[in-house]
Amino acid sequence: MFSWFANPHRFLTLSSWxxxxxxxxGALLIAWSLWQGLWIVPKxxxxxxxxxxxxxxxxxAAWLAMASYMGMAVMSFIWFIWRxxxxxxxxxxxxxxxATWTALCLATGSIWGxxxxxxxxxxxxxxxxxxxxxxxxxxxxxxxxAAMDTRQKAARAGAILAMVGAINVPLIKFSVDLFTSLHQxxxxxTVDGPKMAAVYLWPLLASGLGHSLLFAGLVMTLMRAEIWxxxxxxxxxxxxxxx
Amino acid sequence: MSASPILSAFxxxxxxxxxxxxxxxxxxxxxxxxxxxxPLGIGTDPDTLRAVGPGILWVALALASLVTLxxxxxxxxxxxxxDLWLQTGAPASMIAAAKAxxxxxxxxxxxxxxxxxxxxxxxxKADTSLLTHMGLYALGxxxxxxxxxxxxxxxxxxxxxxxxxxxIALPLYVPTAIFGALxxxxxxxxxxxxxxxxxxxxxxxxxxxFAMGAALRLAAD
Lengths: 243, 221
What we know:
Chain A is mainly alpha-helical.
């Protein structure tokens, strides 16, 4: 199955129509969830009044922060085992976007935390710490790739780091979980089903799906740019060789 | 030339630490510098110093491991020793583990052994807990040097890779730093913390050599 996707040409044809669809659907869903979140849903005094509306940005950003790191690690793994170039291109494209959504999660979380908990940042909170260290893992990944001389070396070093990071994430999570947490418990994905009122749940799910689609569209666009860049470099090299 | 490249890498790391430039003393100086600057920086109140002392020493230990790591594999890449070791068919992961372990022996263990002196400077009570802490520093330091070794191996071909190593190693240091601080706090929930610290160190010993080995094979290409 990986090999079917590993063909850059097939990827270019697929993404040429899939990426615009992702953008359009993502924009629609995000717009609807923001309209619902900002004007329609009642505010929740227990979660700080109107400030809780930031949830429709904060929670999807947190989901994407985790999912994008997983995606990067899986792509790195696929590249490391099967050496499919498209997987490496995907991992490279995910890194800056994942870092952006992770930063968005941290920023919106701080803005939400200040009025409700009375602090921008709480060092002994498990989730803030996990997300912060995930942000550092993304930065380290990008810095390492940028420091390597050749594309192949960047891919290999990046893949090793992404995989080491991925097996450490559960350990980091467990260690910071030992601290007591200010952060509220999970309220969407629980054993008993969602604990959240439906009026909040639907816009939140729409926002999560919308951000995921936007993310997927951006990843595909970055990947397309990278593939075209590599082709351009090949053509330039051939011209230089006087072929 | 010794028979086994793993042994040769280990010996070379040990002799390198003591030869010229007092490489092994550098982390020690760093550690001592941090320990002396902290009371000047945050004030000399004995109660404050007693409270922050163990934590400061953890931070100093983590940073001291980082300052020397930049050169740990870089020299072997530059002078060709790495290529020779790998040509013998010896597993790169074991060579890397031998080097990281030798590095901990020369730079990490001395810090742990001297930690009671620094703890006393931070107004700690002179009792057996200082010896327990010594063991915890030694154990945690081992994990620091192995994870730091991953960063060092990955950036072995990068000039001035110091910042890169710190950025890579920082998230990997987190579990050790947290379990170590918990184990020393003596507060609620700290009873199991030394075991968690030991577990996270074992995890580092099991996983880090393979990552270092893969990174070294990359550096040798």
